[in-house]
Structures are given as structure tokens and as C-alpha cells.
Amino acid sequence: MKLDNQGRYVGRSLRKDRFFQFLLLLLVVSVGWWSLQVTGWGSWKGAGKKTGQVAHEDLTEISGLAVSRRNRDVLWAHNDSGGSARVFALRPDGISLGVFELGSARALDWEDLAIGPGPQAGVDYLYIADTGNNALTREVVTVYRVPEPAITPGETTASQRLNGVEAFPFRFPGRTHECETLLVDPLTSDLYLVSRDRNGRQGSVSSLFRSPAPQEPGVIRSLELVARFAAPEEIKGGDFSPDGRLILLRAHSMTRQVKALLWTWDRRTETLSEVFREPGLGVPARNEPQGEAIAFTPDGRSYFTVSEGSGAFIYRYDLPAEVLNP
Question: Which of 27, 207, 227, 242 has the most crowded CB, counting CB atoms within 10 A?
Fold first, then answer.
């Protein structure tokens, strides 16, 4: 406040105050940016439908998720590092259907889970990626494969041991990578690993590596680099659609609202490296601070996400018509 020549206070008009005008402009810009981030397809606000809540008390750090194609309304999940070598079966509403131990497997740092074909025609297999490498000290990572067990509707299996587990050790070309995403091509059985660029230490770029089928148990194989792509978000999970046309990656960022990215692969005209030359389409996913797991439904028209944490919520999202019918 100022005094006039008669000692009276003279107030400033807020409408003419430049600092106030600057604050007002900043507020308008911020609200506009927030609105663009959280509205429209690809946002998280109100996205998806909550189908349930994880009930099993031991399933508290979910990092891998897959949706069964042979067992109706069955999800497969596993915990992150520190757990034992086991997978959990649960319904979309979160009710537990059983716990299955993988005989002969180890769980150093399990990161992702996928369902895909294997050596026996007509059989679905579970693939588990023991590929966590936060400190970049692991020279060799492992993917496990086991035939998917049958789940009897309406029954809960307390615990069961799965035999016939195969271990596929891999080495990245050039240097080690942190990897939290496993993709299994439903048409070729090729395996893909996608690197995570933690805190942008690789220049906000992720890499896609491939191991062509057939896989060789117990033999260390060098992965081949397929593509490198800009990833302003850290890639922490993914899945192929059952028809092999869509690729979905779970993106994690504390500053950006896009939480999942989608690519479409026209196998008749494109190689996978060409697909990843284009940026992924932002698609809906809830703002789950510890969200890593994502998986397509058997019809490829929807997908699920679930976060880490005790009693985590399960969400289902439907793809829009323009993606399903391009």
C-alpha cells in the first residue's frame, strides 16, 4: 500500500496489477494443460471399469499379468522380486482360484508374464520373465515356460506344483539392460523383451529385442536388436493381442498422464522395426503409481490392468472402434 500527499492509503487495482495478471495467466495455462492431459482417449481420469479387488493375501506386488485363453474368466499373475517361483490364478473380480509353484524355477526378479504358443500344437503356455536388472549387473536373464494348467470352474486349488518347466537364458547384445516387459508373438512363438529406461539414463529410449522360435532350453542365446524407440515414459509391461495385430505397452511416468501405448502391426506390409518408427497411440490406463501389469482379453477387444499393493483394484478397458476396425 502507498500513501498519497494527504497521508491517506492508496490501494492497487488488482485488474491493473501486472503480477496478478501474470498469476492469472499462469493459472489459465495450467488448467488448460491439465484438461488436455486428462480428457479424451488415452487419459486416465475415469478410465476403465473396476471389475474387482485382489483377494489373495500373498499377492501384494503384482508385476506380471496374463489372461487365459483356455480357462474362461481366469487371470494369471505373479509377484515382483523377493517372492517364490509361483503364479496365482484369480477371477476378474479378484477371487483366488489357486497358487501354482513352478518346479525347478527360480525367482530372482520376476517382471512380466505372457501366454503364447509353444512346441506342442494346440497347447497354451505360460511364459515368465525373470529379467529384472535394476543395478544392470545381470549378464544373463531367464524366461521360463510351462504348459498352462487347467482350472476347474467353481473350484479353488490351494497349491499345486507345475512340472515340465523349461528355462531359456538370454544375453543382451553389447551391454546389459533393465527389462520389465515380455511379449510372446501368438503367431510365431518368437519372444521379445523391451528394455526400461529408468530415469532417462539411456536418453529416454527403449529397445526391443527378439529371440526367434524355436527356443532352446538351457542354452544361453544372444538376443537380436529389432528396434529402438523414443520412450518418454518408462516401459514396465506389455502384451500382444491374440491375433498378433496389436502391441500394448504399459508406460510409467510421474509427470505425464499417458499410462499405456498401443501400436498396430500390419504384417503384410510392415516389419516390426518399421512399426516402432512411429510413436505409440496413448490409450487409457488408470493412474496407478505402482502400475506395471497389463494384458489383453482373449478376444483382443479389451485389456486389464492391476497395480502393486495389498488388495489392488483390477480394471478393464475397451478398445474403441477405430482401433478394432481400422
Answer: 207
